[in-house]
Specification:
Helix content of chain B: 10-25%
Low-confidence stretches of chain A: none
Number of domains of chain A: 1
Mean pLDDT of chain B: 96
Number of helices of chain B: 7
Distance between the termini of chain A: 53 Å
Strand content of chain B: 25-35%
CATH architecture of the largest domain in chain B: 4-Layer Sandwich
CATH superfamily of the largest domain in chain B: Aminohydrolase, N-terminal nucleophile (Ntn) domain
Strand order of the largest sheet of chain A: 1-2-3-4-5-6-7-8-9-11-10
Number of strands of chain A: 11
Largest interface: A-B, 21 and 18 residues
Oligomer: heterodimer
Radius of gyration of chain B: 18 Å
CATH class of chain A: Mainly Beta
Helix content of chain A: 10-25%
Distance between the termini of chain B: 28 Å
Mean pLDDT of chain A: 95
Order of helices and strands of chain A: EHEEEEEEEEEHE
Radius of gyration of chain A: 18 Å
């Protein structure tokens, strides 16, 4: 595979992102390696081609935000908002991810091997997010579509004001948010979970060890009897 | 925004390089805090009978050429304080062998425009307006030596850009705090502390948190107990980094709204608002890098 290397200690990020936006798409399928990210913000944000980008180290805020088609691997941790508003493709964080990972993502797959911070998958709109560790409080807040899979634990107010997204958690849940409830896992949901575990490299993990959480749908329309749940 | 940075060296040999390692950390947080910067460094304590204060002359005209020796000579003449001075431009560390309050009161009479920014046996504090690079160069931060230090780059949001509203803030002796965030109830804290005789130097919310926590320590709380009471009383979004002669402590509010990241090796513990400020540290690629959990207390011993 054709490969291009950038060193952010020597090349400004703006040049690297310009290359990824304008030159690289003509050579779709090539691998682009980015050394010394050193926590810079918005690395590989706004990609719109089937590129394979590898970030060798810790990324700052909004890494791989708005991704379409590309596969971005971060061999380190990611700051706030990694893969925010992703449309398609795949983002893989080998370390931990800070707050709001995968926020508002419409499509694609976000894999986080370590823990994710607060508000993971907030307002999720269709993407799949698989977290190998635990997620912080308010995760999947107002999530509308897609799946959040958590192999570890979840913090407080999981799935607060949830719409139609599915949340699978293997560990403990500190508390559920308003209108989020445990649901029986049917064959269809088990198949979705098994497929995501497979894609995330967790094929050895038994889907039956997870619990499924979803919306109780009592907040869809205001009803005074629900006032206490708001 | 604001940026916080902290560094505690475990390996004694690194004490010589403390400031040198810290300056790029502060400069890395310039975008988070371009208007003022400050640093508190903890060194080996003075002998039991001596105290030192950090005095700032920046509110005087011709501050860069302030005659610190004349101040110390007058102090020794008036109070027999056995005082000595080490000056760095507008800042000076004055050490002496009498009660700190007596010296503070004497300075207030001698030159009311001088500000005393810290008191103790271990702490030296420098803060001023300007970019982090300017302030670091002005006071020679790169040459600082010691066990640990606490630094801050400020983007003012709730009180004016002045040297005395820059961080770190101090209260009592040998205690300092830097803050990234904002408190919603600083005036309530002020009203709560007023009956205890606690007075404030500024209208800054961080000063309220500093004086509250120092008051709890003075009332006998261990640092962790004081921080636990802080969680109950201090309302807002914050990351606090605090220094005492023997400890560096970090807490985040329950919503973890304000960022923080820690890198720990056998040689040091380094804390910053963002990883950008840690990237230059030796061995950081093999460090244990983690994001502190909300409402958890992290305390490292110097």
């Amino acid at each position: 595979m054709e490969s291009v290397n950038f060193d952010l200690a020597a090349t400004p990020l703006r040049e690297v992102n310009h290359y990824l936006h304008h030159q690289a798409p003509a050579r779709a399928g090539q691998q682009v390696r980015i050394d010394n990210p050193n926590g810079a913000h918005a690395i590989a944000a706004g990609l719109n081609a089937p590129l394979d980008v590898v970030i060798e180290g810790h990324a700052g805020y909004y890494a791989a935000g708005m991704n379409q088609h590309a596969t971005v691997t971060i061999n380190g941790s990611a700051g706030t908002g990694v893969a925010e508003n992703m449309m398609s493709g795949k983002v893989h964080v080998k370390g931990f991810a800070s707050n709001a990972a995968g926020a508002t993502a419409h499509g694609g797959l976000l894999l986080i091997d370590g823990d994710a911070g607060l508000r993971c998958a907030i307002s999720l709109k269709g993407a799949n997010v698989v977290v190998g560790g635990s997620v912080g409080s308010f995760s999947a807040f107002m999530a509308q579509a897609g799946n959040l899979v958590v192999l570890g634990d979840a913090g407080e107010a999981l799935g607060d004001s949830l719409y139609e997204a599915r949340i699978f958690v293997r560990g403990t849940v500190k508390s559920l948010g308003a209108d989020c409830e445990e649901k029986p896992m049917g064959e269809a949901e088990r198949a979705i979970l098994a497929d995501l575990l497979q894609q995330a490299g967790h094929a050895d993990v038994d889907p039956a060890s997870f619990k499924l959480y979803g919306s109780a749908r009592t907040l869809y329309n205001f009803h005074v009897d629900n006032a206490g749940a708001y | 925004m604001c940026g916080i940075v902290g560094l505690l060296v475990k390996t004694p040999a690194l004490r010589e390089q403390l400031g040198e390692l810290m300056v790029p950390m502060m400069i890395g947080m310039t975008e988070r805090g371009p208007d003022s910067a400050g640093l508190a460094v903890f060194t080996a304590p003075l002998p039991a009978g001596r105290r030192k204060i950090s005095v700032f002359a920046g509110y005087l005209e011709d501050a860069d050429r302030y005659d610190w020796q004349a101040l110390v000579d007058a102090l020794n003449r008036d109070l027999d304080a056995h005082a000595e001075v080490a000056a760095r431009g507008r800042h000076a560390i004055v050490s002496f062998a009498i009660a700190a309050d007596a010296v503070r009161n004497w300075i207030a009479d001698y030159q009311p425009l001088l500000k005393v920014f810290s008191t103790g046996r271990s702490i030296d504090l420098y803060k001023d307006i300007g970019t982090p690079a300017e302030v670091a160069a002005r006071y020679g931060f790169a040459g600082f030596k010691g066990t640990h230090l606490v630094g801050h780059t400020r983007m003012a949001t709730e009180s004016a850009v002045t040297p005395d509203r820059a961080h770190p803030f101090t209260a009592g002796e040998d205690f300092c705090l830097v803050h990234n965030g904002s408190l919603s109830n600083p005036n309530g804290i002020r009203r709560m502390l007023a009956p205890h005789g606690i007075r404030f130097d500024t209208d800054n919310d961080t000063e309220a948190a500093t004086r509250f926590l120092e008051w709890r320590l003075r009332e006998g709380d261990e640092l962790k107990e004081a921080l636990q009471k802080g969680f109950e009383v201090l309302d807002g979004f914050y990351t606090f980094l605090m220094g005492t002669p023997t400890e560096l402590a970090l807490i985040r509010d329950p919503f973890a709204c304000k960022p923080a990241v820690v890198a720990e090796t056998d040689d040091y513990v380094a804390i910053a608002s963002e990883f950008r400020s840690l990237a230059h540290l030796p061995g950081v690629n093999h460090a244990h890098v983690f994001e502190p959990a909300p409402e958890e207390m992290y305390v490292w011993k110097a």
